[in-house]
Amino acid sequence: MDRLTAARVFVDVAATQSFTATAERLEMSRPMVTRYIDAMESWLAARLLNRTTRRVSLTSAGEQCLPQVQAWVEQAEGLQFQLMGRDEPAGKIRVAASMSFGFAQLIPAVKAFMARHPRVDIDIEVQDRAADLVAERIDLAIRIAADPDPSLIGKPIGRCESVLVASQRYLDGAPEITRPADLTRHRCLGYKNFERHIWHLSRDGRHESVEVTCRLTANEATTLLSAALQDMGVGLQPAYLAQGALARGELVRLLPEWQPKVMDIYALYPSRKHLSPAVRALIDHLADWFADGTWQDIRL
User: Fold this and answer.
1) 3-84, CATH topology level
2) Dihedral sign, CA of 4, 151, 22, 88?
3) Which of 190, 236, 235 is nearest to 215 (CA)?
Protein backbone atom coordinates (compact mmCIF):
# COMPACT_ATOMS: atom_id res chain seq x y z
CA MET A 1 0.00 0.00 0.00
CA ASP A 2 1.00 3.64 -0.44
CA ARG A 3 3.18 4.37 2.58
CA LEU A 4 2.67 8.14 2.39
CA THR A 5 -1.11 7.74 2.51
CA ALA A 6 -0.72 5.26 5.34
CA ALA A 7 1.37 7.80 7.22
CA ARG A 8 -1.28 10.51 6.66
CA VAL A 9 -3.94 8.16 7.99
CA PHE A 10 -1.87 7.36 11.09
CA VAL A 11 -1.28 11.06 11.83
CA ASP A 12 -4.98 11.79 11.46
CA VAL A 13 -6.09 8.91 13.68
CA ALA A 14 -3.63 10.13 16.31
CA ALA A 15 -5.40 13.52 16.20
CA THR A 16 -9.02 12.30 16.09
CA GLN A 17 -8.59 9.18 18.25
CA SER A 18 -11.24 7.63 16.05
CA PHE A 19 -11.11 5.45 12.95
CA THR A 20 -14.62 6.59 12.02
CA ALA A 21 -13.77 10.29 12.28
CA THR A 22 -10.62 9.83 10.20
CA ALA A 23 -12.57 7.90 7.57
CA GLU A 24 -15.03 10.80 7.28
CA ARG A 25 -12.31 13.47 7.19
CA LEU A 26 -10.15 11.68 4.64
CA GLU A 27 -13.15 10.47 2.62
CA MET A 28 -12.38 6.76 2.73
CA SER A 29 -14.11 3.76 4.24
CA ARG A 30 -13.47 2.72 7.83
CA PRO A 31 -12.08 -0.67 6.72
CA MET A 32 -9.62 1.18 4.47
CA VAL A 33 -8.44 3.23 7.46
CA THR A 34 -7.88 -0.03 9.34
CA ARG A 35 -5.89 -1.45 6.40
CA TYR A 36 -3.64 1.61 6.26
CA ILE A 37 -2.98 1.46 10.00
CA ASP A 38 -2.20 -2.27 9.71
CA ALA A 39 0.20 -1.44 6.87
CA MET A 40 1.97 1.19 8.99
CA GLU A 41 2.34 -1.20 11.90
CA SER A 42 3.69 -3.93 9.61
CA TRP A 43 6.10 -1.49 7.97
CA LEU A 44 7.46 -0.23 11.34
CA ALA A 45 7.17 -3.66 13.00
CA ALA A 46 5.45 -2.11 16.03
CA ARG A 47 1.96 -1.70 17.41
CA LEU A 48 1.16 2.02 17.10
CA LEU A 49 -2.38 2.23 18.42
CA ASN A 50 -4.40 0.78 21.27
CA ARG A 51 -7.90 -0.03 20.06
CA THR A 52 -10.99 -0.43 22.21
CA THR A 53 -14.67 -0.30 21.33
CA ARG A 54 -14.86 3.28 22.65
CA ARG A 55 -11.48 4.84 22.03
CA VAL A 56 -8.24 4.75 20.10
CA SER A 57 -5.00 5.89 21.72
CA LEU A 58 -1.30 5.86 20.90
CA THR A 59 0.94 3.16 22.29
CA SER A 60 4.36 4.17 23.60
CA ALA A 61 5.81 3.19 20.19
CA GLY A 62 3.13 5.32 18.48
CA GLU A 63 3.98 8.32 20.67
CA GLN A 64 7.67 7.85 19.93
CA CYS A 65 7.35 7.72 16.14
CA LEU A 66 4.47 10.20 15.63
CA PRO A 67 6.66 13.35 15.45
CA GLN A 68 8.93 11.76 12.85
CA VAL A 69 6.00 10.52 10.78
CA GLN A 70 4.41 13.98 10.93
CA ALA A 71 7.67 15.56 9.78
CA TRP A 72 7.93 13.09 6.91
CA VAL A 73 4.38 13.82 5.78
CA GLU A 74 5.04 17.58 5.95
CA GLN A 75 8.24 17.21 3.89
CA ALA A 76 6.42 15.18 1.26
CA GLU A 77 3.57 17.71 1.09
CA GLY A 78 6.07 20.57 0.92
CA LEU A 79 7.78 19.01 -2.07
CA GLN A 80 4.40 18.40 -3.68
CA PHE A 81 3.38 22.05 -3.17
CA GLN A 82 6.66 23.28 -4.65
CA LEU A 83 6.08 21.27 -7.79
CA MET A 84 2.40 22.26 -7.93
CA GLY A 85 3.38 25.92 -7.74
CA ARG A 86 4.64 25.75 -11.30
CA ASP A 87 1.22 24.83 -12.63
CA GLU A 88 -2.41 25.83 -12.31
CA PRO A 89 -3.61 25.53 -8.64
CA ALA A 90 -5.13 22.14 -7.96
CA GLY A 91 -6.31 19.95 -5.10
CA LYS A 92 -8.90 20.16 -2.34
CA ILE A 93 -9.29 23.07 0.09
CA ARG A 94 -11.16 22.63 3.37
CA VAL A 95 -12.73 25.94 4.42
CA ALA A 96 -14.47 26.73 7.71
CA ALA A 97 -17.00 29.57 7.89
CA SER A 98 -20.01 30.63 9.91
CA MET A 99 -23.44 29.62 8.66
CA SER A 100 -24.49 33.22 8.02
CA PHE A 101 -21.37 34.28 6.12
CA GLY A 102 -21.16 31.01 4.20
CA PHE A 103 -24.81 31.26 3.18
CA ALA A 104 -24.94 34.99 2.42
CA GLN A 105 -21.54 35.88 0.99
CA LEU A 106 -18.99 33.07 0.70
CA ILE A 107 -20.75 30.91 -1.89
CA PRO A 108 -20.87 33.61 -4.63
CA ALA A 109 -17.15 34.25 -4.11
CA VAL A 110 -16.34 30.52 -4.17
CA LYS A 111 -18.41 30.05 -7.32
CA ALA A 112 -16.30 32.61 -9.18
CA PHE A 113 -13.07 31.09 -7.82
CA MET A 114 -13.98 27.55 -8.88
CA ALA A 115 -14.93 28.75 -12.36
CA ARG A 116 -11.47 30.33 -12.66
CA HIS A 117 -9.65 27.27 -11.20
CA PRO A 118 -11.39 24.10 -12.45
CA ARG A 119 -8.80 21.78 -10.86
CA VAL A 120 -9.58 22.97 -7.33
CA ASP A 121 -12.26 21.29 -5.19
CA ILE A 122 -13.61 23.03 -2.08
CA ASP A 123 -15.13 21.46 1.03
CA ILE A 124 -16.90 24.00 3.27
CA GLU A 125 -17.32 23.20 6.95
CA VAL A 126 -20.14 25.39 8.29
CA GLN A 127 -19.82 26.05 12.01
CA ASP A 128 -20.53 28.85 14.47
CA ARG A 129 -17.57 28.12 16.70
CA ALA A 130 -13.83 28.52 16.51
CA ALA A 131 -12.53 25.37 14.84
CA ASP A 132 -9.18 23.82 15.71
CA LEU A 133 -7.65 24.16 12.26
CA VAL A 134 -4.87 21.65 12.84
CA ALA A 135 -6.93 18.96 14.56
CA GLU A 136 -9.79 19.29 12.07
CA ARG A 137 -7.49 19.57 9.04
CA ILE A 138 -8.96 22.94 8.02
CA ASP A 139 -6.88 24.75 5.40
CA LEU A 140 -8.57 28.13 5.73
CA ALA A 141 -11.05 29.62 8.20
CA ILE A 142 -13.13 32.72 7.54
CA ARG A 143 -13.71 34.39 10.87
CA ILE A 144 -15.18 37.70 11.99
CA ALA A 145 -13.33 39.00 15.02
CA ALA A 146 -11.91 42.06 16.72
CA ASP A 147 -8.87 40.07 17.87
CA PRO A 148 -8.23 36.84 15.92
CA ASP A 149 -6.45 33.87 17.46
CA PRO A 150 -2.78 34.96 17.77
CA SER A 151 -1.63 31.39 17.09
CA LEU A 152 -2.98 31.64 13.52
CA ILE A 153 -1.79 33.58 10.49
CA GLY A 154 -4.44 36.02 9.32
CA LYS A 155 -5.16 38.28 6.40
CA PRO A 156 -8.02 40.81 6.62
CA ILE A 157 -10.34 40.38 3.63
CA GLY A 158 -13.17 42.72 4.59
CA ARG A 159 -14.98 44.74 7.25
CA CYS A 160 -18.08 43.62 9.11
CA GLU A 161 -20.44 46.38 10.20
CA SER A 162 -23.60 45.61 12.15
CA VAL A 163 -27.04 47.23 12.07
CA LEU A 164 -30.00 47.41 14.44
CA VAL A 165 -33.13 46.14 12.68
CA ALA A 166 -36.75 45.25 13.30
CA SER A 167 -39.86 44.69 11.23
CA GLN A 168 -42.34 47.54 10.80
CA ARG A 169 -45.06 45.32 12.19
CA TYR A 170 -43.12 44.83 15.43
CA LEU A 171 -42.36 48.57 15.67
CA ASP A 172 -46.01 49.52 15.17
CA GLY A 173 -46.90 47.84 18.45
CA ALA A 174 -43.81 48.81 20.45
CA PRO A 175 -42.45 51.99 22.11
CA GLU A 176 -40.64 54.46 19.85
CA ILE A 177 -36.87 54.14 19.55
CA THR A 178 -35.09 57.51 19.29
CA ARG A 179 -32.01 56.91 21.47
CA PRO A 180 -30.00 53.86 22.60
CA ALA A 181 -31.59 53.81 26.08
CA ASP A 182 -34.98 53.14 24.45
CA LEU A 183 -33.79 49.65 23.54
CA THR A 184 -34.19 48.62 27.19
CA ARG A 185 -37.98 48.75 26.72
CA HIS A 186 -37.96 46.31 23.80
CA ARG A 187 -37.80 42.61 23.12
CA CYS A 188 -34.35 42.08 21.67
CA LEU A 189 -32.85 39.11 19.86
CA GLY A 190 -29.59 37.97 21.42
CA TYR A 191 -26.71 36.53 19.43
CA LYS A 192 -24.71 34.42 21.86
CA ASN A 193 -21.44 34.78 19.92
CA PHE A 194 -21.44 38.60 19.71
CA GLU A 195 -22.46 41.31 22.20
CA ARG A 196 -25.25 39.08 23.56
CA HIS A 197 -27.12 41.16 26.19
CA ILE A 198 -25.01 44.33 26.15
CA TRP A 199 -24.97 46.28 22.90
CA HIS A 200 -22.20 48.84 22.38
CA LEU A 201 -23.01 51.83 20.17
CA SER A 202 -20.93 54.84 19.08
CA ARG A 203 -21.75 58.25 17.61
CA ASP A 204 -19.40 61.20 17.01
CA GLY A 205 -16.94 60.00 19.63
CA ARG A 206 -19.64 59.15 22.17
CA HIS A 207 -20.08 55.59 23.36
CA GLU A 208 -23.06 53.96 25.01
CA SER A 209 -23.47 50.41 26.31
CA VAL A 210 -27.06 49.27 26.61
CA GLU A 211 -28.13 46.20 28.57
CA VAL A 212 -31.01 44.70 26.61
CA THR A 213 -33.62 42.07 27.43
CA CYS A 214 -33.40 39.01 25.20
CA ARG A 215 -36.16 36.45 25.57
CA LEU A 216 -34.89 34.75 22.41
CA THR A 217 -31.21 33.98 21.96
CA ALA A 218 -29.39 31.87 19.39
CA ASN A 219 -25.83 31.01 18.43
CA GLU A 220 -26.42 31.65 14.72
CA ALA A 221 -27.20 35.00 13.05
CA THR A 222 -29.40 33.67 10.22
CA THR A 223 -31.81 32.25 12.79
CA LEU A 224 -32.11 35.65 14.45
CA LEU A 225 -32.62 37.38 11.10
CA SER A 226 -35.54 35.05 10.52
CA ALA A 227 -36.88 35.96 13.97
CA ALA A 228 -36.69 39.68 13.15
CA LEU A 229 -38.57 39.06 9.90
CA GLN A 230 -41.19 37.20 11.95
CA ASP A 231 -41.83 40.35 14.07
CA MET A 232 -40.18 38.89 17.18
CA GLY A 233 -38.13 41.92 18.20
CA VAL A 234 -35.07 44.08 17.61
CA GLY A 235 -31.98 42.37 16.21
CA LEU A 236 -28.32 43.35 15.97
CA GLN A 237 -27.40 41.90 12.60
CA PRO A 238 -24.27 41.85 10.41
CA ALA A 239 -24.84 44.20 7.48
CA TYR A 240 -23.78 41.50 5.02
CA LEU A 241 -26.78 39.44 6.13
CA ALA A 242 -29.46 42.11 6.69
CA GLN A 243 -28.85 44.55 3.84
CA GLY A 244 -31.10 42.71 1.37
CA ALA A 245 -34.07 42.69 3.76
CA LEU A 246 -33.47 46.39 4.46
CA ALA A 247 -33.34 47.24 0.76
CA ARG A 248 -36.63 45.39 0.13
CA GLY A 249 -38.36 47.11 3.05
CA GLU A 250 -38.80 43.85 4.96
CA LEU A 251 -36.87 45.31 7.89
CA VAL A 252 -36.33 48.85 9.18
CA ARG A 253 -32.93 50.12 10.30
CA LEU A 254 -32.99 51.65 13.78
CA LEU A 255 -30.77 54.41 15.16
CA PRO A 256 -28.78 54.67 11.90
CA GLU A 257 -26.64 57.47 13.32
CA TRP A 258 -25.39 55.09 16.04
CA GLN A 259 -22.75 52.57 14.92
CA PRO A 260 -22.44 49.14 16.61
CA LYS A 261 -18.98 47.64 16.98
CA VAL A 262 -17.14 47.11 13.66
CA MET A 263 -14.98 44.01 13.25
CA ASP A 264 -12.66 42.64 10.58
CA ILE A 265 -13.27 39.58 8.45
CA TYR A 266 -10.14 37.42 8.38
CA ALA A 267 -8.89 34.56 6.28
CA LEU A 268 -6.96 32.50 8.84
CA TYR A 269 -4.61 29.56 8.34
CA PRO A 270 -2.37 27.63 10.73
CA SER A 271 1.05 28.21 9.14
CA ARG A 272 2.78 29.86 6.20
CA LYS A 273 4.86 26.70 5.90
CA HIS A 274 3.74 24.52 3.00
CA LEU A 275 0.74 26.73 2.22
CA SER A 276 -0.53 25.26 -1.04
CA PRO A 277 -0.82 27.37 -4.21
CA ALA A 278 -4.56 26.67 -4.22
CA VAL A 279 -5.03 28.10 -0.72
CA ARG A 280 -2.87 31.12 -1.56
CA ALA A 281 -4.95 31.71 -4.68
CA LEU A 282 -8.20 31.47 -2.72
CA ILE A 283 -7.01 33.95 -0.08
CA ASP A 284 -6.03 36.46 -2.76
CA HIS A 285 -9.34 35.92 -4.57
CA LEU A 286 -11.40 36.51 -1.41
CA ALA A 287 -9.45 39.67 -0.56
CA ASP A 288 -10.14 41.05 -4.06
CA TRP A 289 -13.78 39.90 -4.03
CA PHE A 290 -14.67 41.64 -0.76
CA ALA A 291 -12.39 44.67 -1.21
CA ASP A 292 -15.12 47.16 -2.13
CA GLY A 293 -17.45 46.18 0.72
CA THR A 294 -20.36 45.40 -1.61
CA TRP A 295 -22.51 42.55 -0.28
CA GLN A 296 -24.60 40.07 -2.23
CA ASP A 297 -28.37 40.31 -1.80
CA ILE A 298 -29.80 37.12 -0.29
CA ARG A 299 -33.28 35.94 0.67
CA LEU A 300 -34.23 33.53 3.42
Assistant:
1) Arc Repressor Mutant, subunit A (1.10.10)
2) negative
3) 190
pTM of the model: 0.73
Convert the pLDDT of each residue in 106-148 to its tens digit. 999 999 999 999 999 999 999 877 777 877 788 999 999 877 7
CATH class of the 162-260 domain in this structure: alpha beta
CA atoms within 13 A on the CB side of 28: 16
| Helix ranges restricted to H, the chain | 3-16, 19-26, 30-44, 60-84, 99-101, 107-116, 168-172, 221-229, 239-247, 277-289
Q: For the chain, which residues make up each domain, given as ranges?
A: 3-84, 91-158+263-289, 162-260
| 246 closest CA partner among 225, 224, 261 | 225
Class of 91-158+263-289 in CATH: alpha beta
Q: Give mean pLDDT in consecutive 10-residue pieces for the chain, a chain of 300 residues.
A: 87 87 86 93 92 85 90 77 67 93 95 96 87 80 83 88 97 97 96 81 95 94 96 97 96 97 91 78 95 83
Cα 26 to Cα 90: distance, rounded to the nearest angstrom? 17
pLDDT digit string (tens) for 182-212? 999 999 999 987 766 899 999 999 999 999 9
Q: Which helix (H) or strand (E) holds 89?
A: none
Coil, helix or strand for 206? strand
C-alpha span between 266 and 146 (Å, rounded): 10
pLDDT digits (tens, 9 = 90+) for 216-225: 999 999 999 9
Q: Calculate the CA dihedral of residues 119, 120, 121, 124 and round it to 10 degrees.
A: -170
